[in-house]
Every structure is written in C-alpha cells, then in structure tokens.
Amino acid sequence: MAAYLLRRLLQSLLILLGVSFITFVLLYVLPADPVRQIAGRSATAQTVENIRRELGLDQPFVVQYARYLAGMVQGDLGRSYLQKTEVAELIASRLPATLLLMLGAIACELAIGLTMGIFAALRRGTTLDHSLMMLSFVTVSAPQFVVGLLLLYVFAVKLGWFPIGGYGTFAHLVLPSLTLGILGSGWYSRMMRSSMLDVLRADYIRTARAKGLSRARVVLAHALPNAILPVIAMIGIDIGIFMGGIVVVESVFGWPGIGQLAWQAIQRVDIPIIMGVTLVSACAIVLGNLLADLIAPMIDPRIKLK
Amino acid sequence: MSLAPDDAQTSRSGADLAPDAPPVLAVERLTVSVRSEAGVTPLVSDLSFTLRRGETLCIAGESGSGKSITSLAIMGLLPPPAVRVTGGRIRLGPTDLTALGEAGMRAIRGDRIAMIFQEPMTSLNPVMTVGTQLTEAIRAHDPVGRAKARSRALAALKAVRLSQPERRMTQYPHELSGGMRQRVMIAMALALRPEVLIADEPTTALDVTVQREVLDLLRDLQRETGTAIILITHDMGVVAEMADRVIVMRDGKAVEEAATADLFARPAAQYTRDLLAAVPRMGRGAARAAVAAAPVARLADVTVRFPLKGGILGRTTHHVHAVEHVSFDIRKGETFALVGESGCGKSTIAKAMVGLVPHEGLIEIGGSPLATLTGPAMKALRRRIQMVFQDPMAALDPRMTAGEQIAEPLLIHGIGDAAERQTRAADLMGRVGLTGDQLGRYPHEFSGGQRQRICIARALALNPDLIIADESVSALDVSVQARVLELLRALQKEYGIAFLFISHDMAVVENISDRVGVMYLGQIVELGTRAQIFGNPQHPYTQRLIEAVPVPDPALKRPATARLSGEVPSPVHPLGEGPARVVLTDIGEGHLVARP
After folding, report:
1. Number of other residues whose CB lies within 10 A of the CB of residue A62
2. In the 8-state DSSP scheme, what is residue B553?
C-alpha cells in the first residue's frame, strides 16, 4: 500500500512536470505580449524593454523555464505581473472557496445523477425511463451560464430563497453547486443507468432474489455497490471537466474562487497566475484520480492496488 | 451433523420416500410463454409432474428444451414482463404459486423453495463476504438476531463440508474456488431447510472431481433433511447417478417421464433413445491401429511461466508456473488428447504451440523450432496449425458472414483471388455439413453446432497438418457433440490431419483419442495410448479423474471411493522456487507414469 502510494505520487510529479512544460510553451508562443499589458499604451520603448528585462522575459525560453522550475520546487510560483502579489498566496486565499464549491457540486451531481440513473434502470423502457434520459440529455447540452442564470432568476430573484451571489454562508453555496451539479448529473445518470442495467442482469442478483430478499435490499445492498464502481472512476476524471465549468459558474455567481482568478489573469495575460492556476488544477485532477483509485478497492475487494 | 455412508445411492430406502403422502410440489399443465413482436410463443407447454418429500426428480434435456424456464417459473423468477406463466398451476402443498403476488413469492423463495445455479463463479455477489450473503438469506425469512443468524450460517457452511468454515465467513467469493463457491451456494440454499431444492445444472461448470464431491454432498444432505430435489441437467451420467425419476424434455414439452432405471433400460420415446445413444460413454471408443507416422509437432521440456509483479519498482516477485517441463509429440494423422482440470495448463500449451505465449524449451512444428522463427517463416508455419475454440459464438466475428470468415485465412495468406476463395469457402461449407448458400449468413443465424462447424471449416481452409481443438465440443449439446466428433473423425481420415484435443471430459477423450496425456498442475503425470490410460491407469490422479466421471447407467454400482475434498495447490511460487519436477518412467510399451 505504501509502495503503491509512493509510486503513484512519483508518477503524479512527472505528470505535473509535463503539464508545467506544455503550459509554459503555450504561453511563450502566445502572440499577446504581457509586457505591453503591464506598461500600458503610452509607455516608451525604453520602459517596455526595462520591464521586460526586469521580469526576465528577455531571456531565452530554456532559461525562463528553468527559473520557473527552480522556483516551483521551492513552492514559489512567482509574482503576479499586475498585482505584484505572490501567486502562491493569491491561489491559497482563493482555493478554499473553489474546493468547497467543488465538493458541493460533486454532492449535487451524484445525488441527482445517481438517483436518476437508478430509477431509469429499474423502470427500464417505461415513460419514466424515457423522460429521465431525455432530461439527462438536456442537462448535458445546456450551457452553464444559462442554467446558472435561470436558477438565479427563479430561486434568488423571484422566490428569494437564496442570495443572488457572493460567498460566506451555506445558502450562498446552494445555487452554484446546483448549477454545476445539474450539468454534471446528465453524464452520471446515463452512466449509472447502463451500469445498473448490466448489474441487474447479473447472476448474483438472481441469487439474491432467489433468497427471497426484499426488492429494496436487492437493489441497495446487491446491485448498487456493484453498479457504482465505474462511476467512482468517472469522478476522478470529472474533476478536470469541473475546472472548466468553475470558471464560468464563479463569474455568474460572483464566487471568489480560483476560477475567477484565472479568468481575470487570462484577460490581462498575467502569465504567472495562469501558470499557477493550471498547475493547481492539474494537481486537483491528479489527486482526484488517485483518490478514486483508492476508494475503489474499499467497495470491490477484487481490486488490488499494485 | 453425521456424514452419510458412501453407498448412499444404493441404500436409499423408502423411509424418506413416502409414496402415499401428498406431493410437496405439483406442477399441473404448466405453460410458460414469451410475448414478442411475433406474438406469443410457448417456451414450456402443458408440463405436469409431482415431487414427493425426499425424492430427486431430474429434468433432462438439451439447450432450449425449457428445463431452466420451468425452474424459474416455479421460483417466480421469470424475466418480466415478456415471459410469463400463461396456463396451468404450480402447487406447493395447498398453495397455488401462480396465483401469488411478488410479496407472497418472496416469502416462499429461499425459505420453502431454494435454488442453486449453474455458474458458481458469478452467482455470488463479488463485493459481499460469504458470511453476509449467508446471514442475510437466513434473516430474510427468520427474524433472528445477527449473532444467531451468524452461528446458523456457520453451521450451514460446516454441513456442506467446507474447510475452515470460520475463515470462509469473512472471505469474498473471489477468494474461493469454483467448487467451494458452489458449496456456499448449497449452504445458502439449504440453511433454511427448504421443502424443495431446485438445482439448475449445479455441477456443469465444475471440474469432474469437484462435480463428484458436490453430487455426493447433495445426496447426503437430502438424506438428512428430506428435501425434495429437482435436478436440471443435460448430463445423462448425472441423471443416472442422482435421479429417482426422470422427465426428458424437448422443445418445451415432456417427451417421457419414467423411473430412472426404466428410462435407461427401456427408453420409450425415440428422442430419449437418440439422446442416450449420443451420450459419450467410456469404453466405447473404437480400437484403432497405432499411428507410427512422423511427428507433426514435438514438444521437449516446454515451460511457460507468467511473471507477477510487485513492489515499488514493479519487479517480478512471483511466477505462475502454468506449464512445467512438458514433453510429447503428435504424429501425423493421430489424435493426441490433453486432459486435466481447469488451471492445469492444457490451454496454455496450445497457446504456446501457436506462439501466442512465450515459452522456454523446444516446440518443433514440422521440424522447425518455433522459437527461432520470425516474420515470414512464422507466418508460413501458422498455416500448418489451426485452432478451434470452445465457444463458437465468441470465436466468430458477429459482423462478418460465414463465407468471409472461412475465406479470411486464405486472404491473410494471399491464396487465390476473390472468386477462388469463394469457391473454396463453399467447398469447405459442404465438407463440414453446411451448404454453400449459407455463406452469406451471419453467425447469429446459425445454431451452436453449426457455428462450431463454421469454425472447423475456417480451420480447414489452409489445409493444416495440425488442428488444436481446445474444448471444442464442451459447450455443445450431446447430440450435437456426437455429430461434431463424427465430423472431426471423418476429416482426419480424409485429410490425415493430426488433432491436439484438449478436454476436461474423460468420456469424450476416451472416444476420440489415440494417445492421451494427463496433466496436473502444469505437468504431465501420465502419458500413453488410450488403452493404456483408460484400461490401466497408473497415476492416482488419472484414476481419480476416471472414477469421477458420472456413468450413464443407473444399474452400475459405484465402488466406495475415498472422499477427497482436495483443493488443487496454487501454481504461484516466489522467484527461484517452483513445483517439484515430475519424472516420468516408462512402465512398458511407451506408457509413461509419474513416479511418486
């Protein structure tokens, strides 16, 4: 187990290194010039050159990347070009909000998606099944800002059940989590439905029924743990998709997370922040997958970590 | 709990068979139909029988005869909503089961009627411990506490003679072998002492020695509990050993119902006679002259090991010793059979011979060592060996027509043009007993036996010297099996093909082979002509295999054998260690036996 963890963490470091390199290359070849953004339109060529030298952006690519790496291993992600704050500090102050939103969203997503999937599978071929699957299709295809604004309008503006935006209390968390959760639930309901249908056909379900167990016990104790396995692997992958969604949803709800930070940084070509957010997101994805792989053997004893 | 004596079968007294008592279960004019777009089709029609306490009734028949549907109908487990009982009644005592709703059936299932299924590997929930699965069965019907249910579950595991029952309670199904899992299923079914036990092909998926143990166990438990058993099987050997009465079913109808001895001695229906005639029996193989031709394949000291990795660096820590120091040769035109139980390495040898797994030692095909061949030479060699597998449905591409699949080997080896290949495919179809106009059909349009014929035609396409038949007839119904075996024999005579016939079925091997190698744990423990192996088996394992085969003759008195509840040892060993090497000695006329 310890050996497995160690190996997985080493692999994760390699992945992060790869992500940092690719992102760095992409930002290097980007036609937008960060120095122009910092200096402003009226700056002289001399000022621009000075800033460029100051930031080390006049150096060749290899030197720039090596400097970045050297900082990164010491936990130094550089300073924001515009805010002059440490990127690590900026991210650290924003990360809790994003993690909270992510947890809320995953909870909503699973609660909605799995319930839909299970009921669709149990009522296969009925109107309920068809309607649920139609609904899942709608949620998968709906744009995030549309769902977000719709929820805002109905539950915050019209009904006034939840605050319109911001951060701080549980009530603030509900609508953004629900937005992300509704969007993700489509995938999960479809996946859960097909997984559940496979499991319901299994011989051990027939055995469970032959024992005279109640319908609820057959579904909850026998079918569900088996059917949920592929879904757990999906959660790990899903965190990556989340990161994309969070940028939009945080903007819609004024949620002070790293999604907003990233959005602002992209507009201003604030390269250190973009790099930092990308690396933190990659970390989240890698850890999410690791976590999913660690949870799977707790449910299925046949899975051995090695 | 006392164990019954070994001669249980012959000493069955009338004490627990009460002919005058009302039947435990009565099926009256049962009709089960499936509703589809084509209308309502009966799967079982007008079936009637009764079952008394302590009695074993066998329902025998081939696939599609409706025997499993009958059992599911009794359990109320027919797949809804398409399949349902459309006529007749099933009475359990005074209760009509067909009139009960789901809630009423649930109270009966597992409590008064229990069932065990064919596939022990998949019939237990993989993510739940054996103990939990047993206790929940008990608690579903008996409102006892957790501790009480647990102790009863433990008692049930002890009753099925499972080794280390306390430990089994905490284990998961994948940690148990097939035979052990089937014991768990039996324990689960009998824990509540049901009046009726339905056993649907309970030993079909098990090795023959394990089958023997499970059948003995069922018989002993029945004597103790007086449970009436409905045994569903396709195996007439099992019928002869287990049944008091037999119903032979075909196409959803009972063809014949008789006491077991009468059925075997005087089968009334033509179908029963055909079925009995098709059953492979030991001692029926036609004597053939020994083949003294040149070998088409020679194996010397062949070893196949698979690495198991572990540790931080993922280095090899253990090996699975699948095949260890195996040597034999196959001569032109002969059938060499490899027999042994699952996991003994017989299929691995087949894979090594066609280069699908790496091997150590020498494998020579037509005089050229396999290991030295690369590229074109390897491809040329592949023409000389073809394989036919167990499951023809899985071995055929569902999206290619029969003709395309038969012609594909020709295409791969660049033989002939499209028209010539088509002609050859049509020829081959004819040769295996199909017709040329079926070339354009897809695999799902054929029956199981026909599909296996297509696989054989595909194997013949390149005129191979050697065909490896890996359990090629094991999945087929006996009547189909008999015809496919007949075809293989005819093809061998016509083309002089050598067969490597891999099987777990001793009766089939005895019927088709010239020479036999018996494998155990990756090594050959006995090798000789068919007459030597079956007439004078020397190794204890060979003897055990032969004795374990159910004989389709109820009059035959089986000698009391020692009950071996043997679990085969693991073939996994740490690096640098391995199983003790078996040394074969010639005890005369080429009959090789492992010396203990």
Report:
1. 8
2. -
Chain A nearest CA to B126, separation (Å): 7
Residue B585 to residue B582: CA distance in whole angstroms: 10
Give 3-state DSSP helix, strand, coil % of chain B, rounded to 5: 35, 25, 40
Which of B100, B125, B170, B188 to mutate: most A Cβ within 10 Å? B125
- Provide mean pLDDT across the span B117-124: 86
Over its C-alpha atoms, chain A yields an Rg (Å, rounded) of 24
pTM of the model: 0.80
| Residue B221: both structure tokens together | 């438990």
Q: In B74-97, which positions are buried (b, 16+ CB within 10 angstroms) versus exposed (e)?
A: bbbebeeeebbbbbbebbbeeeeb
Q: What is the pLDDT of residues A201-217, one digit of tens each?
A: 899 999 999 999 998 99
The mean pLDDT of B490-519, rounded to a whole number, is 90
Which of B17-26, B58-67, B343-352 has the least mean pLDDT? B17-26
Q: Which residue of B has its CA nearest to A222?
A: B125
Q: Do B309 and A306 touch (CB under 8 A)?
A: yes
Of the candidates A3, A7, A208, the beta carbon closest to that of B125 is on A208
Tens of pLDDT, residue by residue over B49-72, are 999 998 999 999 888 888 889 999
Cross-chain Cβ contact A301/B125 below 8 Å = no
CB contact under 8 A, B114 and A210: yes
In A, what residues contact B, Cβ < 8 A?
Answer: 3, 6-7, 202-204, 206-215, 217, 221-222, 225-226, 299-302, 306
> What pLDDT, on the 0 to 100 scale, is given for residue A199?
93
Q: What is the pLDDT of residue A303?
A: 82
φ, ψ at A215 (rounded to 5°):
-55, -45
| Average pLDDT for chain B | 86
Identify the pLDDT of residue A300.
Answer: 85
Q: How far apart are CA B41 and CA B32, in angstroms?
A: 9
- Write out pLDDT tens, residues A152-192: 888 888 888 888 877 878 888 888 888 888 888 888 999 99
**Contact (CB<8Å) A301/B106:** no
Phi, psi at A193, each rounded to 5°: -60, -50
Non-local (6+) Cβ contacts of B451 within 8 A are: B392, B393, B396, B443
Q: Cα torsion for B250, B254, B256, B261, to the nearest 10°?
A: 90
pLDDT value, residue B138: 92
Q: What is the mean pLDDT of residues A97-118?
A: 90
CB < 8 Å to A306, chain B: 309-310, 314
